[in-house]
Design goal:
Blueprint (H helix, E strand, L loop, with lengths): L5 E6 L4 H10 L1 H4 L3 E4 L1 H15 L7 E3 L7 H10 L5 E5 L9 H13 L4 E2 L2 H9 L16 H4 L6
Helix pairs in contact: 1-3, 4-5
């Protein structure tokens, strides 16, 4: 990971307000990085950061599709391709979602590729305030090739 991180920001409907408040609180740090957001979250984060910074041209947000419409899969593919450095995913544990399998798959791929993942505001605060957040970092990657020897196709 380079000093400039590629940060995925995702929030379920009941958690979007929390993510926007968090982004506003951390706007000066986020503005130094590349953000990738799903659906409506991207528009809301962009609006909040424009309000805070007053500088729309300095905001770098790539907006994907809405999570239920394929945004979760887009994000998972970006993780598998090494295009995401960390993810802030404020998901709603109290609300059933029609795309729960997509959410589970996204969280699984984060663990598989050793992507720092924050699922609540406290862990997001710890992540963004870490000294590692603004410096080069090489995460340890696990070699999963042994799984193919056990008959599990990893390709």
């Amino acid at each position: 990971m380079n000093e400039i991180k590629r940060i995925a920001l995702v929030a379920h409907d009941n958690r979007k307000k929390d993510l926007i408040e968090w982004a506003e609180w951390n706007w000066n740090i986020l503005m130094k990085h590349q953000m990738i957001c799903t659906g409506t979250t991207g528009r809301m984060v962009e609006e909040a950061l424009v309000r805070k910074s007053g500088s729309p041209e300095s905001i770098r947000i790539r907006k994907l599709k809405s999570g239920p419409l394929g945004g979760d899969q887009q994000l998972g593919a970006m993780i598998a391709e090494g295009e995401i450095d960390c993810i802030i995913f404020l998901w709603d544990p109290m609300e059933p979602h029609p795309h729960d399998v997509d959410v589970k798959a996204l969280l699984r791929i984060c663990v598989l590729y050793n992507i720092p993942t924050a699922c609540n505001r406290s862990s997001a605060d710890f992540m963004i305030s870490s000294p590692l957040f603004n410096q080069r970092y090489e995460p340890v990657t696990k070699d999963y090739s042994g799984y193919s020897k056990r008959g599990i196709d990893i390709n």
